[in-house]
């Protein structure tokens, strides 16, 4: 019997935590794929400040490395951002043109930091960060 296809858009803490719980409750129920814009597994974003300060490195804040996805039968599409969702045909389309069909779709894309419109917000060295790709 073919498993229903679950696609998670967003490889952050909330979405992957949902998968962890799903795997505990029904480990063989879904064929799971994850799309994440960043080129690695998911990590603890709360610990980005110690990374920025040079106190920690990415491997130290990883929650689930790429081996975890493989070990749990999850297809990880890292470095791929979903640019459109076709709800009629039930598929997502990534920025590289690849497509993935789904039976169930979970959107957990997080947030975008807001730069407050205060004097100095546009000065060199002032930045908002929410991922490892921040320009530091």
Features:
3-stranded antiparallel beta sheet; 21% helix; 136 residues; FAD/NAD(P)-binding domain; alpha/beta; 26% strand; 4 helices; globular; 9 strands; 4-stranded parallel beta sheet
Describe the protein.
This protein is α/β, with parallel strands linked by helices. It has one domain: FAD/NAD(P)-binding domain. It has four helices and nine strands. It has helices at residues 13-25, 48-52, 58-61, 66-71, and strands at 5-9, 31-36, 42-43, 62-64, 75-78, 82-86, 91-94, 99-101, 104-107. The strands form three sheets. A four-stranded parallel beta sheet has the order 5-2-1-9. It has a three-stranded antiparallel beta sheet with strand order 6-7-8, with no helix packed on it. Strands 3-4 form a two-stranded antiparallel ribbon. α1 (13-25) links the parallel β1 (5-9) and β2 (31-36). The mean pLDDT is 92.
């Amino acid at each position: 019997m073919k498993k229903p296809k679950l696609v998670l858009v967003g490889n952050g803490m909330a979405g992957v935590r949902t998968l962890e719980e799903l795997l505990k409750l029904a480990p063989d129920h879904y064929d799971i794929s994850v799309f994440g814009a960043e080129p690695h597994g998911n990590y603890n974003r709360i610990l980005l400040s110690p990374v920025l300060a040079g106190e920690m490195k990415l491997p130290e804040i990883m929650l689930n490395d790429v081996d975890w996805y493989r070990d749990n039968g999850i297809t990880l599409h890292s470095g791929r951002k979903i640019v459109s969702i076709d709800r009629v045909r039930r598929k997502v389309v990534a920025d590289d043109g690849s497509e993935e069909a789904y039976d169930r779709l979970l959107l957990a894309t997080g947030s975008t930091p807001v730069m407050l419109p205060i004097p100095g917000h546009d000065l060199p060295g002032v930045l908002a960060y929410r991922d490892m790709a921040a320009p530091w």
